[in-house]
Every structure is written in structure tokens, then in C-alpha cells.
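Throughout this chapter, every protein is written as a compact record of paired, labelled lines. The reader may check this reading against the record printed directly beneath this paragraph:
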Amino acid sequence: MGEVAFNRVAIIGVGLIGASIALGIKRRGLAREVVGSGRTEENLRRAVEREILDGYSINHKEAVKGADLVVLATPVGRFVEITKDISGSLKPGSLLTDVGSVKGSIVRRIEEVVPDGVRFVGCHPIAGSERSGIDYASGDLFEGAPVVLTPTGDTAADALSRVGKFWEALGAVVTRLSPEEHDLVFALLSHLPHLVSYALVNTLSDTDPDYINLSGSGFRDTTRIALSSPELWTEISLYNRDNLLRLIESFRKALDDIRDGLVKGDAEHLRRLFENARDLRKRMERDD
């Protein structure tokens, strides 16, 4: 991808991910102009003051006018509504992409409302943290991070290639999954762990919330993601509900297996379960 890949990039939703994309673009000279839009003008004004954005509009239609690349970085539940709203203002030949952690039906519905001449490519950068907002944004957030592209049969090959190169220019490692496989994979790797983390903290709360004052690094590490936005994770959980319901049953069976070992006092059974989990988890350390 050339030094200046786009004349104008519009980012709708300037939070941690949106602001980090903007900073990454500006740091690497990938666009002549980066603008943003969102619901809170004060946040957008601060983004300009901190040189995250070159300009902003609280009107999505105004922000996307003339943009070669438009990035949807709001909560996923607003993607289709926003796409409908901006469709008449999108530049012919432009690219539309997103950063949502749920794909499936959302990708298909966006494809249905994208106007002719505009190419959409679904994306999911695996980056960020339980923190949110522009104060935690970084132009290097995507350095070495996986980014999953989720093409369908309707995805234009040239658009897929260009969006992939854009993420690689931001330092990401790009891979591809279908929208449906993506949602299964990240129900396992992200969405279910968030639910388990919330449930673990609530289990402590039901016993005695003051016990949290005695917690050490193990509980902190295991429940760090329970600090994530309840609003965001309510939305993600409901959009990926079918996968999560199936995996909750699988998780329940895994807990029952451990429970059986405890009831029977079967140390060998428990040891095998724990060793299997440890050995698979070690692969993450080798990959690092």
C-alpha cells in the first residue's frame, strides 16, 4: 500500500478503536485527511485538539462526504441503521468497513443496504482492552494484532485486497473467516469468556462482596474483562446468542465433569482434566 493510500478517511464512532485507527493512519501517512463523527461533540472536539482527527461532524452524512474509506466503529447494533443513513452520501467507488466483534447476520444486512458502487468488507481487529475512550487510544494498538476479514460471496476481490493491505499497513496480521465461522470462533475466544468473567464476579458477590478485598493476582487476571462495558457486552451477547447458548451448555458439561471428580474424590480424573487444559493453554505461550 502506497504512502498515501486514501485522500479522506471517515471514522464513525471515535472511541478506543476508532481513535486508534485514526492515530495509526496519521502516524503512517496513510491518508491526507482523517475525520470523525459521533454522538458526543465534546468527545469529537477533544479528538481534534489531541490531533487524533483533522476534523469532525456530528452528522454522519456530512462526515462521509468525499471519503475514500469509511469505518464503522460504533457499537455493532447501530451498523445497519448508520449504513442506511449514510448510503446516499457515500462516494461511488469508496470502501466501507467495520470493526465489529459480531458478524453473521449483520454483514449480510449491511450488504443489502450498501448502495451500488460502494464496496463493503467486514473486519474485526482483535485489539483493545476493557478500557474505552480516546484517552486510551494508541497509534500502535494494531501492531502485531490479528485482524479477521469476513468476506462473503458478494465481497469484491479488489476491495478485500485493499482493506487487507490497509490493516497490514497499520501493523496487523490479517486472516480471513466466513462471517458464520467468525462468530463461532469468537464466541469461544471472547464472548463466552466475558460471560464467565461476569458470572465469576457475581458468584463472589452472592457469597460476600467484601471478599473481593482479599483477592490476589489470580482472581484479578481471571476477571479483568468483567471491567468491560456492560452495555457493549449485552449487545454483543444478544447478537451472538445462538452460538453462546450452545457453548454455555458445553461449558456447563465441562464444569459438571469437574464436579463429578470432586464428588467422587477422584484425584486422577481431576488431574487429567487440569493437565489437558494446561497443555492447550501452553500453546498460547509458545506462540508469543
Observations:
- The first helix runs from residue 16 to 28.
- The chain has two domains: 6-177, 181-287.
